[in-house]
Amino acid sequence: MAATADTIFDQHLTARAFSLTSAFWFAFATSIGMVAAGYLIAPDFMANIPYLQFGRIRPIHVNLVLFGFVTPGLLAAAHYYVPRLLRTDLFSQKLGLMSVILWNVAVVSAVVSLSTGHSQGREYAELIWPVDMLVIVSFALVVLNLLMTVRRRKEPVLYVSIWYACAAVILTALTFSLGNVIWRPDTGALLGIPDAILLWFYGHNVFGLLLTPLTLGLAYYVIPIVTRNPLYSHTLSLIGFWSLLVVYTHIGTHHLLQVPVPTWLKVVATVDSVAMVIPVMVFLINIWYTAKGKLGEIHADIAGKFIFTGTIFYFFVSIQGSIMALPQVQRITHFNNWVIAHSHLGVLGFAGLSALGGLYYILPKITGKPLYSRFLADLQYWLVLIGIVGFTVVLTIAGLVQGNSWFAGETLYRTLPEIHSYYVVRLSIGLFIALAAYIGLYNVIRTIYFNPGEEA
What is the pLDDT of residues 172-201, one digit of tens each? Predict the structure, then answer.
């Protein structure tokens, strides 16, 4: 039996390495986020330490959550289910390990460069050119490994999860290169309005063409297994896939409705933002009908519980996003904490919860042993859930206070005392998520390396 466990361990080196990467950076990212939240309460908080100034740690937090926690967690699951669905082994575990190592080098380089003040100064594209190239090479290795696995498959039918996983890494490698303007290493940017348009083409697609496809692919794999139901409709899954790719790619300009960009581009962005209800509802109808009558099984399975809850948050964040793209709504919601609530709901509530569910699904499979502690996983679930709901409520209220005050002509500095108490609550709620991250890290490490449980 030990030999079998060793074989399982060797077959999933890449998935295991991405799992550890995700768990570690989740803990680190939440710690940085707590420091950033402290600055909003006390602006002079550690302000004499240049490496920890708010303008530096805020992009560190964002990039760690995106590239350190959520994406590696989803890629860990993808490196497990893609070979399984194709009935073959991963093309190369060595290539996979190389991609993980380069990925972590890129993340560490991002932390060091941003903390020392080296930034391109563009939201979601702050990383300087050498770090950009590390990210692109890492993505290229992942693309090569997954596509070669598809090429040598023994299963002729490509299940929809394969479509989503491959599209995510291919399209993100391309959009990351475009959005970071890698052909201009000295600036990493274009000039004027064209740069703003290109930036938000990338800035929105790094979520919609990376986190969303990987998350949906994971849900399409896990939910039918957990519920022991066949997928409700394979046709709907492909309609959702192609409509996501067609519609999502055009919506980034809805961040620039108050900017002098071409009117036709604003119209396209607004219309497609509203049209996002099509791929979203197609997916949700498909996955919820698959789970119909099986909520008990989902609740009993820790991975299913994380991922199914993520689909619920997907509904709320997507409907909210479509409404926020309307110019009349944006007059109140733009440039304030409403947007921060929306981003936490999407990245942590939808993609983050699903990534954690993916980790808890694959860990017993890639180690040959049961999860170290179901209790700790459940505790992490509730802590993260409380944190997400708390963030959404508190930041939405603060955003509405800000938006309505500014719309009524109130000056910026007079709104700050009104929302100070909400920032205190925000920091308090952040403690739940930070604690959950460290609990998850402990559980993942114990499951992989120090697990006394019997071999599965």
Answer: 999 999 999 999 999 999 999 999 999 999
Which tokens go with 420? Answer: 């100070």
- Section 295-323 average pLDDT: 96
451 or 18: which leads in pLDDT:
18
Type of residue numbered 302: I
List the structure tokens of 171: 């399209």
Residue type, 321: G
For 379, phi then psi, to 5°, come to -60, -45
Determine the Cα–Cα distance for residues 360 and 222; give it in Å rounded to an integer: 11
Task: Please report, rounded to a whole number, the percentage of residues in the chain having pLDDT higher than 70.
Answer: 97
The one-letter amino acid code at 440 reads G
- Does residue 129 lie in a domain region? yes
Measured CA to CA, the distance from residue 449 to residue 366 in angstroms comes to: 12
CATH of the domain at 90: 1.20.210.10
Residue 254 DSSP one-character state: G
Q: Is residue 206 part of a domain?
A: yes
Q: Which alpha helices (H) appear in 253-373, and where do they start and end?
A: 263-275, 277-290, 295-300, 302-324, 327-333, 337-344, 353-367
CA distances from 326 to 2, 263, 444 (A): 59, 14, 42
The amino acid occupying position 20 is L
Mean model confidence pLDDT for the chain: 94
Domains identified in the chain, total number: 1
**453, part of any domain:** no
Name the DSSP class of 269.
H
Contacts of 417 (CB under 8 A, 6+ apart): none
Q: How many other CB atoms are found less than 10 A from the CB of residue 303?
A: 26
Written in H, E and C, the secondary structure of 290-320 is HCCCCHHHHHHCHHHHHHHHHHHHHHHHHHH
Tokens 């994971």 sit at which residue?
A: 218
Integer Cα distance of 145 and 124 in angstroms:
26
- Compute the Cα dihedral for 121, 254, 205, 433 and give only its sign: positive
Domain of 104 in residue numbering reads as 2-448
